[in-house]
Design brief:
Blueprint (H helix, E strand, L loop, with lengths): L8 H14 L1 H10 L5 H10 L17 H12 L3 H11 L2 H8 L2 H12 L5 E4 L15 E5 L2 E12 L6 E7 L9 E7 L5 E3 L13 E12 L3 E3 L4 H36 L1 E2 L2 E2 L4 H27 L7 H26 L8 H11 L6 H13 L8
Parallel strand pairs: 1-4
Antiparallel strand pairs: 2-3, 3-7, 4-5, 5-8, 6-7, 9-10
Helix pairs in contact: 1-4, 4-5, 4-8, 5-8, 6-8, 8-9, 8-10, 8-11, 9-10, 10-11, 10-12
């Protein structure tokens, strides 16, 4: 397979230089204060061309490919999940579903604003009784004349209470299961939409997360993005988000390797740098093998989807390998550095690595997806 990198070396170097030079101190602030990146920084990202890398130029993006977007995302994810999150939302988040499925007028209004750093759009999928079993969701959207009215509750919404708008997965008909599910675009200041308290998570500090409550939330009918029966379309768009989640995990692993590699050449024991010990050499090799393997599988999934959306098989394999690699590599990094102290970012990388193995679909459910793709049918887990 030939991977086409259209992002110039200069552009990738610019992303790396900006992320490492400008965002390291900001990442420390977002971690300690558990607050999201300021809108001023998001607009700076836009000015630098880091938002909407793979969005068509007619909507204000750079018009590059998915691989190019993930290369940029990885550079920021190496610094922290929080500083990378606005880029994540702009290149693999719900804005891509809007690009593929929304009304032309809605696309023209929302997507350029995201690329300019003026808006952030989050996805609202999970519910108290519908996470992995997403087709059990109960949030309902009812068409009433020229309006759509939503009622229900969403959980674990990354961006909740902070984003400007939400792509809400909801039940649009009485048809049970997936056939009754679609999606509606809802702006954050719509009357009747309220938010729970910010979640206190083990990791992802600086990535806002809250419940969403819909109480007779009324939006124009043209905010319907995917009608009832379009659940498979939504899941195809989510396959690209899996590549983004995998890249966020990869960023934790790649940065852990970089940090550990520098540390073991400086840290001395028994009169010599600890890199001279064979046990340390083996750990470094294992870390590098896992990082490079994950990176190539992500690139494969993204490259195979150029001009469209990734397959569930490619994206699920990439996510599993990357998520598991991130957990293992950051764990080895903590061990090599004795990095249990919050003085160093290694322990944050390990906490975030565990989170990316849950966010965007757990490792185990990705393995079920892989088996389903291999045999060519979905498995009914309810019987």
């Amino acid at each position: 397979m030939r991977i086409d990198f259209r992002l110039s070396e200069e552009q990738q170097a610019a992303a790396r230089e900006f992320a490492s030079g400008e965002m390291t101190a900001v990442a420390e602030e977002t971690e300690w204060e558990a607050r999201p990146l300021s809108r001023d920084w998001v607009k700076r990202y836009a000015e630098m061309g880091f938002l909407g890398v793979n969005i068509p130029t007619r909507y204000g993006g750079l018009g590059l490919g998915n691989v190019d977007a993930l290369l940029v995302l990885e550079e920021f994810a190496k610094i922290s999940s929080a500083v990378a999150f606005p880029i994540f939302e702009s290149v693999v988040g719900p804005v891509r579903a809007l690009e593929h499925f929304a009304d032309d007028a809605l696309k023209a209004r929302v997507i350029p604003a995201v690329c300019r750093g003026e808006m952030m759009v989050a996805v609202a999928m999970s519910e108290p009784d519908a996470g992995t079993a997403l087709t059990d969701l109960r949030t309902r959207a009812e068409v009433r004349g020229d309006r759509i009215v939503l009622n229900g509750t969403k959980r674990w919404c990354s961006g909740g209470g902070h984003s400007d708008a939400y792509l809400v997965y909801c039940r649009l008909s009485e048809t049970p299961g997936a056939k009754g599910i679609g999606a509606v675009y809802v702006e954050g200041d719509t009357p009747g939409l309220t938010f729970g308290e910010q979640e206190q998570l083990m990791g992802f500090r600086g990535v806002p997360e809250s419940d969403l409550y819909f109480d007779e939330v009324s939006v124009p009918a043209d905010h319907l993005v995917v009608p009832a029966g379009g659940f498979p379309k939504l899941m195809r768009a989510f396959d690209l988000e899996r590549c983004g989640s995998a890249t966020m995990a990869l960023g934790q692993a790649a940065a852990a390797l970089d940090d550990a590699l520098a540390w073991v050449q400086e840290r001395r024991q028994s009169g010599k740098p600890i890199v001279e010990f064979q046990a340390v050499q083996l750990k470094l090799a294992e870390m590098a093998i896992r990082v490079e393997g994950a990176r190539l599988l992500i690139y494969r999934a993204a490259q195979n989807a150029e001009g469209g959306l990734p397959s569930v098989l490619d994206s699920s394999i990439a996510k599993v390998v990357s998520n598991e690699a991130a957990r293992e590599v950051t764990g080895m990094g903590v061990q090599l550095m004795g990095g249990y102290s919050r003085e160093y970012p290694m322990e944050r990388r390990m906490r975030d690595a565990w989170g990316w193995g849950i966010a965007g679909g757990t490792i185990d459910i990705q393995k079920v997806n892989i088996a389903s793709a291999l045999v060519g049918r979905r498995f009914d887990q309810r019987r």
